[in-house]
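Supplementary material to the annual report.
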Amino acid sequence: MVAELISVGTEILLGNITNTNARYLSEQCAALGLSCYYQVTVGDNEARLKAAVREALTRSDVIILTGGLGPTNDDLTKEAVAAVLGLPLAEDAHTRERIEDYFNHGIRRAPTENNWKQALVPEGAIVVDNHNGTAPGLILKTQDHKLIILLPGPPGELYPMFEQDIKPYLSKLTPEIIYSRTVKIGGMGESYVADAIKDILASQTNPTIAPYAKTGEVHLRVTARAASKKEAKAMMRPMILELKKRFGSNIFTTREDVTLEGKLVEMLKRYGLTVTTAESCSGGLLSGRLVNVPGASDVLHQCFVTYANSAKHRLLGVKNSTLKKHGAVSRQTAKAMAGGAAKAAGADVALAITGIAGPDGGSEEKPVGLVYIGCYVRGYTEVVECHFSGNRAKVREASVARAIDLGRRCVMKYGRK
Amino acid sequence: MVAELISVGTEILLGNITNTNARYLSEQCAALGLSCYYQVTVGDNEARLKAAVREALTRSDVIILTGGLGPTNDDLTKEAVAAVLGLPLAEDAHTRERIEDYFNHGIRRAPTENNWKQALVPEGAIVVDNHNGTAPGLILKTQDHKLIILLPGPPGELYPMFEQDIKPYLSKLTPEIIYSRTVKIGGMGESYVADAIKDILASQTNPTIAPYAKTGEVHLRVTARAASKKEAKAMMRPMILELKKRFGSNIFTTREDVTLEGKLVEMLKRYGLTVTTAESCSGGLLSGRLVNVPGASDVLHQCFVTYANSAKHRLLGVKNSTLKKHGAVSRQTAKAMAGGAAKAAGADVALAITGIAGPDGGSEEKPVGLVYIGCYVRGYTEVVECHFSGNRAKVREASVARAIDLGRRCVMKYGRK
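Predicted assembly:
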């Protein structure tokens, strides 16, 4: 079955917004086993919108339109699709009730006359309730068994509606289910990871495996097609075991909802440890990322941003002689920052970052991108020297990811009391 | 003139990447006065790619294709376009030389046989040098005076090539030039800003004005069409003066390259002031954002993350009685954190954030999203109470933006020595 996405909105054609809905829906279609051959974007223009729908009907089986379901005169998607299919529009009593309810009990203001337009639906449409707005989703079947699905454009309405109602509906259309799991690896480069599994990548059929790189992490997405979820899980088990064998403790999780920082916080909680940070070039981004884990307050009480040498000395007790002899960006300073931060905060674990993020400040000997990361855990300290590329923001982001991964590895090694 | 964008790449159709190129090019086309009516994405498939080009030729004057110019067999864009136009491919000696040079002096490895494919160009094409990769851009004119422009897909190659060569080429096609300036407003909501200029928004013709909201800021983009840049500037001057009259010091810059945090750092430098931060729920994101300004080290030496009450007391000297009586999330604590941070760091200015970012920790009296932000400047302290919506990350991001804007306002008020 071939799917086609039609995004409706002049704001996309003007470049005012990025079309992230198309990516989301493409990914969902792929996971459902639907082949997406075309994505089309048209503006809020009736003639061009109708032409796009007519053309999609000639080449695709499932057509998903997003946007243009709002209450204003600019919103034409429903009207255009109904016209192409020759279907009259009629008020849907249930939807009218839902809109009334939304205004009376939800946002507590009076609906405008325009809003009732959203209760009109094409004859024979399946109406999908919108739990986050007033425009319902609509599923239409053509006489030659093609599907046209109309969905609201705002991601806050589209995503939950797709997850809750559209995905289950579409998954019934394909005989197989698609099931994925992600194996997340920290602290290894993408090319290194890809090289270590190149034999698997070359010979894969079902399950398949696809690497995705993000800063400081590589995610291996394992996907199986099977008649049931149970069968898919059984099919991918040997591959996941093989990945665990090859990557060992470089894998930090195989759970979808676990982040690298979430994993570190989870380990610290398990071992009953507290953590602090001492940051120079990253300037607080490391502590900021750790604090984004809900419940981080159990393990993190205070952190330091020591950008100037004087602050490294005064707050962390880094010796002036160390700073003078080896420089602020050095293995020795990173070690002293980590140890000093742990002591100053009374924490069991400390992560320290000192480096040259650029654009200025680099030299032949210490170029932009050189970063030392220290990790102290209960009396042991490890320091890694990193060379990152990219602009100031990239170097800082890469430093933070590497520091969290180093923390994870050191806590694993030295954290058990 | 009507423009059409064709993005080529199976990775977009699979949802592996977001099509940010389409947004970039749409924005550029709009600025050049080209009307973009369609954006189409197709995969690395010769038949569908040819069909998309043929269709675009029926309805658009300028067709811009991105992607599919690489060295592998999957890369088909050039071949498909040449086939549609009936043009033979021949090796371009200049491009071959550039590719040789790229490998010998750039990345210093041997080219593969595949790479020479990138030196083949359709007969009659204008070749546009790629200064960041091996695939040149190509401009083709059809017999009925339509333009087909082929550009590399990687943004690091596409953007500079478009800026340097394609934009000047296209701007000659339209009799008018388009010139834009952005008026950036801090600390006001989008609906408030839109309401204050609704008369202008309703009656605009040339220049036009468009509001864009980002966290804690609203940007008003003023755009004029005219025969020359000088004329465009003269046309928009009265509107920019009117905006300055209406928004006064809420406007923090009218320069494209100035960020909110960059403006604060610039003001601190001008007044010879140093700054520190004390963060609770934001956990270092505020200092992290300030440090992202190159040269921030002149004004920022150290900062504190005081997540636990004990840290607020110990590092910042917030009285235990204040914490006990008013709570960690209170006007009084925010004030004491700001003053205490300035004292502890020996800084002239201090920004403090304490709030409930969620998802837990809220109560009827102090709900999730309640944040107090304090700013100390040379003996004066101001505190604002904010109510932010959204998830944990949103609340924290909004707090940081608001704190920087408060810093800007307070430095303006109290910063002159």
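Chain A has a mean pLDDT of 93.
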